[in-house]
């Protein structure tokens, strides 16, 4: 008689629809191809990194390093392309390799040294931000023609909105993540680990491999988000994407994933990202509200979702307890 | 909500106070501001809002909180909204090509305020900025004239090491005094653009050089000058007469110091970048007149000859 694990997802979907209706009621121009295209393009890097964060939070962990990894990757790419003169595709491969290995290394430390993910990834955050500064303190423009070609790949909507490549890359990432979470052994292990590490071990889940894999996925996706960010701005900038890890965590929680792990869906994260984008768009459309209201609204939503999780948690335990009590009596 | 309503009320009130001659064209203008990291920037925001209200524009304001991704989002939202023009004070020079192309395709003119970008100049209408080298020149020219023929040892408080205004203001000042062999910079150190550092560094100048051997102080901004004035007073000297003080920015506090005779001159970095931008936009809307790609704002010199008390009263409410 447990409540459906999809309930928070439905709440997220309802929140998104309500927010959309409220926005469109006040600003009819918000229901346009252009705004839809903007939401996908401007949130592409955030969406991709939030997918990685979903894996990590589902397993009961946290990854604070992703914002720094995005900035590092963007500077790394720009410097490689400018100074080493290598082709962007080769640079992309190198950057993905570095970020995935970096994530895996953090996962290994978390598992083998039994350190809290919060501390390990906090160290990772400082390390990567520092590395980005060492590479270049100035913003480095990327002028390679391959970038121009990738940026020219977009579908132009009737009203002039541009659905760019990076938006499609984000959607593709979400689709692949759904497959990985629900159709593979690794995905089941992620959920099992988040439910309870001890139970997972008893069930025969390879803890080391799963933990390292999860942080490698998060690091790799942060690297991928870095590539997308680099395409987004055609530059590498060591001060970029400060605090994006917190936006990603917020998107995951607003998307209905349980912060303690074990329950949640990447589809929810997708709508979590869109809800945050919608709030920002609304505030710019209004033009009089302080943009700090974005933070206030997101804070309020986060609080509401944490409360919802708590209430659902109570509802579940309240139903289970009488059952175990009667079992003990018999 | 309360916040928004009070703001709207204020704007409405201000709109009713504007003279009838102001045209109520009702153009919508989006303004993407970097943030409010300094008093000057806060003043720029206030002045932009005021002059938009005076001209009857509907100003959509977006504070990017120092983040480029927020600025790009705001620009795209402005385009989606179909505003008549966009003002942007870019937080960083790179990464604007794509979004500026979208604005151009939507036929929305973009004016850069206060800083420029690394993008082809056909992607924006014009850039309104100050010439920071020229600011240094104006400060140097004033000092040359004030000192005349007597020998003068100058100490210099530089801005943040490596920052572009620090480099440019140093360069301009040196260019100007190069023609006067009696003027010599004897000490030059960074005071990081802050009041506290300005004071500390000036104290060390006074100790190492001896107050009697310093004839003038050149500070890259007013805040450092205000700190240094404190140090000069604590050393038992009179700032403004024993040691001449010239600096740049023209923030309210330096006007007060000039009014009290503790500082001598300041070069204004005007917070009114939007005024020239609006003029250019109006000409463009009217008959498609294209402004020059760079509109240089006036680097006005304020000395004790101006009514600094009045300027102080006028500026102190701008949010500096």
- Fraction in beta strands of chain B: 15-25%
Question: What shape does the CA trace of chain A take?
Answer: globular
According to DSSP, the number of beta strands of chain A is 4
Assign the CATH class of the largest domain in chain B: Alpha Beta
Please state the second-level CATH architecture of chain A: Orthogonal Bundle
Structure, explained:
The complex is a heterodimer of chains A (330) and B (320). With 330 residues, chain A is mostly helical. Chain A has a single domain, classed as Orthogonal Bundle (ABC transporter involved in vitamin B12 uptake, BtuC), CATH 1.10.3470. Chain A has 14 helices and 4 strands. In chain A, helix 4 runs parallel beside helix 6 (117-135) and helix 9 (185-195) packs across helix 11. The longest helix of chain A is centred in the C-terminal third of the chain and has 37 residues, at 293-329. Chain A is globular. The two termini of chain A are 21 Å apart. The relative contact order of chain A is 0.20. Mean pLDDT of chain A is 92; it is low at 323-330. Chain B has 320 residues and is an alpha/beta fold. Chain B folds into 2 domains: 2-130 and 270-289, 3-Layer(aba) Sandwich (Rossmann fold), CATH 3.40.50.2300; 132-268, Response regulator (Rossmann fold), CATH 3.40.50.2300. In chain B, the strands form 2 sheets. In chain B, strands 2-1-3-4-5-11 form a 6-stranded parallel β-sheet, sandwiched between helices. In chain B, strand 9 (244-249), helix 9 and strand 10 form a beta-alpha-beta unit. In chain B, helix 5 runs parallel beside helix 6, helix 7 (195-209) packs across helix 8 (222-234) and helix 9 packs antiparallel against helix 11 (308-315). Chain B is elongated, with a radius of gyration of 21 Å. The interface between A and B is large, with 40 and 38 residues.
């Amino acid at each position: 008689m447990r409540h459906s694990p999809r309930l928070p997802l439905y709440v997220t979907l309802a929140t998104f629809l309500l927010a959309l209706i409220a926005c469109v009621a006040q600003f009819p121009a918000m229901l346009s191809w252009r705004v839809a295209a903007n939401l996908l393009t401007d949130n592409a890097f955030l969406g991709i990194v939030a997918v990685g964060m979903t894996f990590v939070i589902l397993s009961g962990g946290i990854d604070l390093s992703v914002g720094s990894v995005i900035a590092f990757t963007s500077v790394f790419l720009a410097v490689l392309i400018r100074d080493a003169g290598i082709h962007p595709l080769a640079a992309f491969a190198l950057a993905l390799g570095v970020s995935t290995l970096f994530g895996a290394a953090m996962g290994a430390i978390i598992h083998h040294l039994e350190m809290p993910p919060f501390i390990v990834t906090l160290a990772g955050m400082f390390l990567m931000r520092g590395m980005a500064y060492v590479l270049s303190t100035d913003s480095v423009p990327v002028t390679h023609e391959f970038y121009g070609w990738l940026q020219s790949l977009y579908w132009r909507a009737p009203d002039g909105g541009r659905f760019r490549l990076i938006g499609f890359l984000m959607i593709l990432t979400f689709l692949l993540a759904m497959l990985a979470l629900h159709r593979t052994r690794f995905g089941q292990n992620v959920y099992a680990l988040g439910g309870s590490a001890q139970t997972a071990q008893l069930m025969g889940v390879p803890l080391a491999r799963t933990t390292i894999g999860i942080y490698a996925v998060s690091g790799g996706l942060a690297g991928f988000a870095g590539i997308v960010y680099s395409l987004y701005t055609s530059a590498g900038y060591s001060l970029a994407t400060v605090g994006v890890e917190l936006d990603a965590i917020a998107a995951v929680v607003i998307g209905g994933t349980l912060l303690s792990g074990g329950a949640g869906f990447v589809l929810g994260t997708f709508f979590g990202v869109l809800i945050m984008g919608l709030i920002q768009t609304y505030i710019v459309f209004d033009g009089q509200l302080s943009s700090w209201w974005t933070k206030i609204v997101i804070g309020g939503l986060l609080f509401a979702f944490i409360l919802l999780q708590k209430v659902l948690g109570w509802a579940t335990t309240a139903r289970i307890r009488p059952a175990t009590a009667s079992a003990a009596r018999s | 909500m309360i916040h928004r309503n009070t703001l709207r009320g204020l704007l409405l009130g201000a709109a009713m106070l504007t003279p009838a001659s102001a045209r109520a064209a009702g153009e919508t203008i989006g303004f993407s501001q970097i943030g409010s990291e300094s008093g000057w920037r806060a003043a720029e925001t206030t002045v932009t809002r005021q002059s938009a209200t005076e001209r009857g524009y509907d100003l959509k304001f977006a504070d990017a909180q120092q983040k480029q991704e927020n600025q790009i989002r705001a620009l795209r939202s402005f385009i989606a909204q179909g505003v008549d023009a966009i003002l942007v004070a870019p937080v960083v020079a790179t990464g604007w090509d794509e979004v500026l192309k979208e604005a151009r395709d939507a036929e929305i003119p973009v004016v850069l305020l206060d800083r420029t970008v690394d993008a082809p100049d056909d992607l924006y209408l014009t850039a309104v900025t100050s010439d920071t080298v020229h600011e240094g020149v104006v400060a140097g020219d004033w000092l040359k004239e004030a000192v005349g023929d007597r020998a003068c040892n100058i100490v210099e408080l530089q801005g943040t090491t490596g920052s572009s205004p620090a480099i440019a203001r140093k360069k301009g000042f040196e260019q100007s005094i190069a023609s006067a062999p009696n003027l010599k910079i004897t000490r030059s150190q960074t005071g990081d653009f802050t009041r506290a550092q300005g004071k500390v560094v000036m104290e060390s100048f006074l100790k190492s050089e001896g107050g009697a051997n310093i004839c003038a102080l050149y500070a890259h901004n007013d805040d450092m000058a205000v700190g240094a004035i404190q140090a000069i007073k604590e050393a038992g000297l009179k700032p403004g007469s024993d040691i001449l003080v010239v600096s740049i920015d023209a923030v309210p506090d330096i006007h007060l110091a000039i009014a009290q005779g503790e500082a001598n001159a300041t070069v204004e970095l005007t917070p009114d970048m939007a005024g020239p931008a609006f003029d250019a936009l109006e000409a463009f809307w009217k008959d498609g007149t294209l402004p020059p790609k760079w509109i240089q704002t006036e680097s006005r010199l304020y000395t004790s000859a101006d009514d600094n008390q009045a300027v102080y009263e006028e500026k102190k409410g701008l949010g500096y």
